[in-house]
């Protein structure tokens, strides 16, 4: 009995004609024997879930650098919230929930320590630039499994690379994750900001609240329902004009009052400077990086690319520990 083939046959019966069916995948760069239990997208999801890069997300900043409290989001909890929201929408639209989950779980694997502050620092230091979405693809193609990569399917790689709003994924599943990334971080960042006392519901204009709700819970529910209603039986994922305009207006408020606030970003200058100094140090002393990164250089990888690989793979605390080890004098006694 081949369970995978049964699942693939069931996809043809139950999924939307616009869904990405496992059997129709463009496949992997390296051909592999198929699993008799799991589809190609289920295997991709499992590979990402068991990767080292995924585990490190639990100790990487989302928005609030070094928050005091256990309830603020991390890059891992953000990833899980994106995955759950995206699965809800995918199920309602009869899309491939396994593909959605794989893309969602992998979309931020390349993020730096200290969130976008770290991304800006590495982008400024590297001559060829640095973006977390391109790094996420590099993580799964090159860095995981000691340089062998995870050999993910074309559709998952496409969804990871194109999850930012400036590009469009080739599959509807990727488009779902792309929108869910945006609505998830707006939802949970507002929740965290309210907890931190940075913003209150009264700071949101009544015109926005009348369209998408007067609480984080109501807004998340409204955005999910709007996407489902406006995308049902269609060949693209979309929102209504009214709701999209309200969401974008709320996003502008978030940038003005939360993302650029002195409370949320009071340590950002320090984080950028610290990662910049680490970059300079390891660029001058590549022999002090761990052996897996030295092997990349030996195999012909550009030095600045590997230094970005090394630093972006660090967790917040590990980067602090390395900075202290390198630059902070140790006490001594006779």
Explain briefly what this protein structure is:
Helix content is about 60%, strand content about 0%. It is mainly α. The chain has a single domain (about 5-265), classed as Hypothetical protein af1432, CATH 1.10.3210.
Work out the radius of gyration.
21 Å
Note the overall shape: flat
Total separate domains: 1
Q: Could you give me the name of the CATH homologous superfamily?
A: Hypothetical protein af1432
Question: Span between N and C termini?
Answer: 73 Å
For the record, the CATH class is Mainly Alpha
Helical coverage, percent range:
55-70%
Biggest sheet architecture: none
- The third-level CATH topology is Hypothetical protein af1432
Per DSSP, what share of the residues sits in E-state strands of 2 or more residues? under 5%
**What is the mean predicted local confidence, pLDDT?**
93
What are the segments in which pLDDT stays under 50 over at least 5 consecutive residues? none
Topology pattern, helix = H, strand = E = HHHHHHHHHHHHHHHHH
Using the 3D structure, state the CATH architecture.
Orthogonal Bundle
